[in-house]
Amino acid sequence: MSLEVVLGAVAGVVLLGVIAVRVSVRLGLPSLLLYLAIGMLLGEAVLGLQFSDARLTENIGIAALVLILIEGGMTTRWEAVRPSLGIGIGLSTISVAVSIGVAGTALHYLLGLDWRVAFLWGAVLSSTDAAAVFSVLRGVGVSPRLAGALELESGMNDAPVVLAVILLASTEAITWVTPALVVYELLAGGLIGLALGFGGAWGLRRAALPSTGLYPLATMAVCVLAFAGGQLLHASGLLATYVAALVLGNSRLPHRGGVVSFAEGTGWLAQIGLFVLLGLYSSPSRLVDALVPALICAGVLLVLARPLSVVAAALPFRLPWREQVFLSWSGLRGAVPIVLALIALVEGAPGGERLVDVVFVLVVFLTLLQGTTLPWVARFLGVAKGSEPQEMGVDAAPLDELGASLLQVRIPVGSKLQGVYLRELRLPSGAIVSLVVRDEAAFTPNGETRLRERDQLLVVATASSRARAEERLRAVDRGGALVRWRDTDPDPKARRPGSPGAPA
After folding, report:
1. 3-state secondary structure 165-222
2. Distance between CA 44 and CA 98 in Å, rounded?
3. CB atoms within 10 A of CB 28
4. What are the φ/ψ torsions at residue 439 (nearest 5 degrees)?
5. pLDDT tier for residue 6 given thresholds of 50, 70 and 90
6. Which residues are CB-contacts of 30 (< 8 A; sequence separation ≥ 6)?
7. In the predicted structure, residue 144 carries a pLDDT above the cut 60
């Protein structure tokens, strides 16, 4: 096949995937189903394209998962998920262990599977999908605590589940050393992610790269390096990737808006490519035989494994029963369980091909059931809070020769900067709003200029005042003009009577 044909086909599939996002929003369906349908349309049952390389599909799937986790970490606000850190860690560890045990025991008796194979099936089915959660959950409008817990779970639970699948798919005996090995790999992966995340943020803030487009590339490279470093050091590369992306996404990076937009674009590309590839790999002739086992597995997950695992994880945090029910129903599955099943197949686990077919049918069924009903369930349980105010966007471009930075501030809808006079911002000495863009028109503001939603501000700040200026802007964004200056100003000298920014 010629190069132009391959490139044309890839471009056509990507364009179809982009259009599918719009179609899925109109139809109220998760877009991953349309991606799978595109892959199956290209496959052996319709257009006749043959593809059955399980190892290649597994490798591409893991690479795509890395990009999806980077996008998830980069777009997750730490201040929003920090209150949910405990329940998020519980859902990604305790919940995984309980889900594997409950699902494995039930499938052993219901499907007659060998104990080790049954627990392998339970491990494959226990992981929620980051792509499904990030794309579906953020439009539901639940409380920040629930949304943060589910985002942390989907970003962190892949790591322990992958380790469990690899251990159960192998023929090696499981001893008392195995849990210690899992704990080491998770802790080491988290530390590697923290080290590269903070180190990468420090380096990018001080790098004077010659082109704006190099900052997103460098940021993505740091996150991918975290995955590679974690794997080479026999730690969890997936956890290292997510932690590094989470740190970088919440750091004051140069051109942060462009970096996050690039991560979102690569995340969408990874989702489209992965789901289309999985649809292409599937064999519709075998899926019919997998229908009954898939429905049994779905019932076990919905009725037993997921609810009990949520109760176990939420027990120390005393969550209301309504929130626990919502967390139980929000265990969205997507490409990750299919990739995990492919790992089991490649590792030579008994019945690996059957497992892949069952998981494929189960993912389609649960996505249709949970993905389409999640907003209704949230409203029925009373946990939907409406749309949350968006984060105020602050992009920074270094002006190295001047020893200053240019901050581009976007005021979102719902921000408490709405109606604030420019003089009420009380920016620190060394920072000034030089331009306001409103309704596609730019003008030079003065102290009596009143800010509005969707305004864009250009703030010039010296190197010494940049951090304090950004902290002040974010404080007013959250608390309004009357927020106390001492809450955001770490320098007590700036609060002396008569100094700029001192309280009245």
Report:
1. HHHHHCCCCCCCHHHHHHHHHHHHHHHHHHHHHHHHHHHHHHCCCCCCCHHHHHHHHH
2. 39
3. 10
4. 55, 45
5. confident
6. 24, 132, 135, 136, 367, 371, 372
7. yes
